[in-house]
Design a protein that fits this description.
4 helices, six-stranded mixed sheet, alpha/beta, Rossmann fold, single chain, 6 strands, about 150 residues
């Protein structure tokens, strides 16, 4: 059964002078806990994709260090905060391999809604994971993890 794992990047520092926003120490720690939870709970994506924005790339790399996806980690277009969720929805609906997608608000919540047919965007905490499983007509929520949840 094909799964899409949607992740919002970890907590990021404020932008200074319009520059990139790296993960904070707390953000790195939360993503590290998420990565360990994923490894312990059978999350095995073929690949990890991210927006190419520093905070998403750092999140993806921390996850990849733990999960070692065979298809690697790469930046893809269409995962920036204000991109159209329907573009990624169409690609994910036709995919046949498990993928972990690291992106941003509001896109991550809008993408979850577009894939599941929910009426409105789902809220996501930083470093939160929602696992979607393919059904006959789209995807359904099959689980997830968020900071503050038990790590077991």
């Amino acid at each position: 059964m094909t799964r899409v794992h949607l992740v919002r990047h970890g907590e990021a520092a404020p932008a200074i002078g319009g520059g990139e926003r790296p993960l904070t120490d707390a953000g790195r720690a939360d993503v590290g806990r998420l990565a360990r939870w994923c490894a312990a709970n059978g999350v095995r994506p073929e690949s990890i994709v991210h927006s190419g924005i520093l905070r998403a790339e750092q999140t993806a790399r921390i996850l990849a260090d733990e999960l070692a996806p065979p298809g690697g980690v790469r930046a893809v277009r269409g995962l920036a905060p204000d991109d159209d969720p329907l573009r990624q929805r169409d690609e994910l609906l036709h995919g046949d391999a498990d993928v972990l997608v690291v992106t941003h608000l509001p896109l991550v919540g809008e993408l979850a809604a577009a894939l599941t047919g929910a009426g409105s965007a789902q809220p996501f905490a930083t470093a939160e994971l929602v696992i979607l499983e393919r059904t006959d007509g789209g995807f359904r929520v099959a689980g997830g993890w968020r900071p503050g949840a038990t790590d077991g």
